[in-house]
Amino acid sequence: MTTVNTALAPSVKASGAAPTTSGPSLGKQDFLKLLITQLRYQDPLNPLDQNQFLAQTAQFTSLESLQNIDRGLASLQTTMAGSALTQAANLLGKTALATGADFAFDGRQAALPFAVDGDAALATVDVLDASGAVLRTLTTGQVAEGAHTIAWDGLDGAGRSLAPGTYHYRVSAQGARAGAAAGLISGVHADGTQITYLIGDVAVHQDDLADVR
Question: Distance from CA of residue 25 to its chain's centroid?
Fold first, then answer.
């Protein structure tokens, strides 16, 4: 096992969006109650205009259609998640190379393990955020076949300290196969439509799997 300290290399800055919040929304039953109440208490001398009534009725119909579509999409998502998990289970016991993996960062430093299958002229490790944006690119000199680790000091490409949390890293090498983990797929976990595989004690995403045999 070797440990490689690296220099700063060009990277892509991450971008994030501010969280949004939503308030209470009206369902079709609430909308219908409001419409009936409006009709019940309307002024007999100035009744609701026919065009306004038709417009409100059309809004109610549209609301009901949208809610039916939403229920259909939720059901479809559940079906797709079950199908994806069934397909993922077929990979249990097979050998795979994972080009990347998640890791927990404590706010100080992280040691990122990687393996090289054959001598490589150069190894590259990209540190990514949850959206897949590259925060920092770490490079090594020539590395021999076998297991290695690379140290990340918690800084992004502009030299700014990043907050503790869960990050992702991806490994590549010139002239050899490389990855964050290699071995038998021993477990599968589904979180919605996101499938996670277990290789040894390393959890990897479906997109990280390569060369499954």
Answer: 28
Distance of CA 107 to CAs 5, 50, 149, 150, Å? Answer: 18, 64, 18, 16
pLDDT < 50 positions in the chain: 6-21, 23, 79-81
Q: 174 Cβ partners below 8 Å, 6+ apart? A: 120, 121, 122, 123
Q: How far apart are CA 146 and CA 137, in angstroms?
A: 21
Cα–Cα dist 201/88, whole Å: 18
Strand partners, 8: 138
Tokens in use for 119? 């001598």
Per-residue pLDDT tens over the stretch 72-95? 666 555 544 455 556 656 667 788
C-alpha distances (whole Å) from 97 to each of 36, 94, 108, 151 are 63, 10, 28, 21
Contact 91, 210 (CB under 8 A): no
Amino acid at 166: T
Q: Which of 191, 192, 131, 194 is nearest to 165 (CA)?
A: 131
The pTM of the full predicted model, rounded to 2 decimals, is 0.57
Query: 10 Å Cβ neighbour count for 65?
Result: 11
**Residue 103 tokens, joined:** 């890791």
